[in-house]
């Protein structure tokens, strides 16, 4: 069995990293604009946030929504697949608080 075949490795690839859990938690309450995300996650650079959002979009965890109004703006939101991860993320948060 290869490393990619272990479901836990796929899960960790999707939720792992320094910024991804914070992105999931920040987007849990609903769609956010880029600057809202950047302000909500202290220390994340513009480039890293952009890269993380693109990767999460590629993985099917985040959806990018463009609003073609007088001034174009973009929001990001969790997909249904990402919401199924929330119990696991909350469990990890609880474990982290207790240990």
UniProtKB/TrEMBL annotation:
<keyword id="KW-0804">Transcription</keyword>
<dbReference type="Pfam" id="PF01638">
    <property type="entry name" value="HxlR"/>
</dbReference>
<dbReference type="InterPro" id="IPR002577">
    <property type="entry name" value="HTH_HxlR"/>
</dbReference>
<protein>
    <submittedName>
        <fullName>Transcriptional regulator, HxlR family</fullName>
    </submittedName>
</protein>
<keyword id="KW-0805">Transcription regulation</keyword>
<feature type="domain" description="HTH hxlR-type">
    <location>
        <begin position="6"/>
        <end position="99"/>
    </location>
</feature>
<dbReference type="GO" id="GO:0003677">
    <property type="term" value="F:DNA binding"/>
</dbReference>
<keyword id="KW-0238">DNA-binding</keyword>
<dbReference type="InterPro" id="IPR036388">
    <property type="entry name" value="WH-like_DNA-bd_sf"/>
</dbReference>
<dbReference type="InterPro" id="IPR036390">
    <property type="entry name" value="WH_DNA-bd_sf"/>
</dbReference>
């Amino acid at each position: 069995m290869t490393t990619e075949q272990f479901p836990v490795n796929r899960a960790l690839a999707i939720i792992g990293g320094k910024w991804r859990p914070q992105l999931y938690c920040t987007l849990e309450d609903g769609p956010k604009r880029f600057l809202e995300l950047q302000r909500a996650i202290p220390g994340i650079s513009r480039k890293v946030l952009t890269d993380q959002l693109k990767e999460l979009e590629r993985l099917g965890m985040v959806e990018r929504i463009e609003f073609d109004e007088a001034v174009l703006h973009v929001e990001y939101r969790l997909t249904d697949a990402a919401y199924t991860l929330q119990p696991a993320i909350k469990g990890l948060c609880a474990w982290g608080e207790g240990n």
